């Protein structure tokens, strides 16, 4: 029994999926959700984690770039890193591999992020009271 206890005490558990499954990553699809769903989700992730990683494959790349530009143009985000690559995928089981373009854009909070978010929240409260 002592050997089992010692083995359990010396056991190191590492989460190998942690780097692949970041909490502040948004994988964007251009067919599943509307554009502003992703814009608002990115704002929430930046509030919580101070930065957000937007990721997309193929035709959804244009959507990711649009989301990043909306956030930057509204003064909410600053660009930290952009990575492009290709990934091998199979369209069906046993099918031949195809390459898809991939983009990852990391955005951080701008200096004015918190005050802009507060002002937007106050506008919502003011407008609700005037119904």
Automatic annotation (TrEMBL):
InterPro entries noted in UniProt: Alba-like_dom_sf (IPR036882), DNA/RNA-bd_Alba-like (IPR002775), UCP030333_Alba (IPR014560)
Coiled coil: none
Classification via Pfam families: Alba
Gene3D superfamilies per record: Alba-like domain
Record domain DNA/RNA-binding protein Alba-like: where: 24-85
Name the record gives this protein: DNA/RNA-binding protein Alba-like domain-containing protein
Protein species of origin: Hibiscus sabdariffa
């Amino acid at each position: 029994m002592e050997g089992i206890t010692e083995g359990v005490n010396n056991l190191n558990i590492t989460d190998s999926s942690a780097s692949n499954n970041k909490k502040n990553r948004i994988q964007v699809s251009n067919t599943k959700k509307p554009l502003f769903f992703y814009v608002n989700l990115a704002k929430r992730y930046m509030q919580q984690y101070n930065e957000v990683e937007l990721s997309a494959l193929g035709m959804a790349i244009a959507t990711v770039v649009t989301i990043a530009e909306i956030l930057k143009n509204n003064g909410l985000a600053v660009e930290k890193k952009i990575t492009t690559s290709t990934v091998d995928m199979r369209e069906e089981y046993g099918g031949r591999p195809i390459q898809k373009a991939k983009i990852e854009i990391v955005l951080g909070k701008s200096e004015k992020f918190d005050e802009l978010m507060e002002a937007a929240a106050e506008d919502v409260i003011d407008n609700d009271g005037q119904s």
